[in-house]
Design a protein that fits this description.
Length: 284
């Protein structure tokens, strides 16, 4: 595809992008020969169209059935953050949620006693977060003009996989964090067993189901990007193994493979082979 959105490794390796066996409608995923980063062959126009789903008043709010899981995982994340910052329950952490959408993560942060603000380029989502009582800049982090060293921590959850130039955002996050501040990055793991088993069948790779997913990190490629932007990986965890999507198999087969995936989740967490990746990056 000659007009594809990404033509070089987003991590900045400067090496060739090699075609993989992971097939998608827009073409097979490409892999950086140096770091293993996977990238989509999507065109710029199709990418922009796919991102339109996020410009809404509902944004990425959890469903009623997933709200509990969202809150539980976010609360664990903030517990680890407090430990890393050495700030106990009474201390007020200043947090910036980058790509905050309508404010789901900010709501949990506020309940956890964190002073949180956000930036969100999708205007209707940003306005919805403002209406919920949060201070949110309707634009990109670069446009927000946040003063140097303004925050103890920042979050970049389910955002980095949307970015053609993720290094620009990480370097700006470095600038707005205090010394020894923490950036938390949540994204999919392209080195997961889920990818090994499902290849292009994994929903996460498909822009018709997850708009704007174009760049897929591994623990290695995320660590390289972090180092190039002034961070070190201080904690990295992965969770969950999926062998089939619910719509791809009969109920009986799906339930059986779901149980097997849950069994595999134990070694996957130990070996960083789960498909949900969460990294805590320390400013250095």
């Amino acid at each position: 595809m000659t007009d594809r959105l990404i033509t070089s490794c987003p991590v900045g390796c400067g090496k060739d992008l090699i075609e993989t066996d992971v097939g998608l409608p827009e073409g097979k995923l490409l892999r950086c020969a140096a770091c293993g980063q996977l990238v989509s062959q999507i065109s710029e126009s199709d990418y922009i169209a796919s991102m339109g789903e996020f410009d809404s008043a509902t944004g990425t709010l959890p469903t009623a059935s997933s709200q509990g899981r969202h809150d539980s995982r976010a609360a664990r994340m903030f517990t680890h953050l407090r430990e890393m910052l050495r700030m106990g329950e009474g201390a007020r952490i200043r947090l910036l949620d980058i790509g905050c959408s309508t404010g789901a993560l900010m709501m949990t942060a506020r309940r956890c006693g964190i002073d949180v603000e956000g930036v969100e380029p999708a205007r209707r989502a940003a306005l919805a977060a403002q209406a919920a009582g949060f201070k949110v800049f309707p634009g990109t982090l670069a446009e927000a003009g946040v003063p140097y060293a303004s925050f103890h921590a920042a979050t970049l959850i389910e955002v980095i996989e949307h970015l053609r130039e993720p290094g620009d955002v990480l370097r700006e996050a470095w600038r707005i964090l205090e010394a020894q501040g923490v950036l938390i990055v949540g994204t999919g793991n392209a080195a997961s067993w889920t990818v090994t088993f499902m290849k292009g069948g994994w929903d996460y790779f498909q822009v018709n189901r997850h708009g704007g997913h174009i760049s897929f990190f591994t623990p290695q490629s995320l660590g390289l990007l972090a180092a190039r932007c002034g961070f070190r990986v201080e904690r990295l965890e992965t969770r969950h193994v999926r062998l089939v999507e619910s719509y791809q198999a009969s109920p009986v087969v799906y339930r059986g493979l779901k149980v097997l995936g849950e069994v595999l989740n134990v070694p996957a967490r130990l070996l960083n082979r789960g498909h949900d990746m969460l990294a805590f990056l320390r400013k250095v």
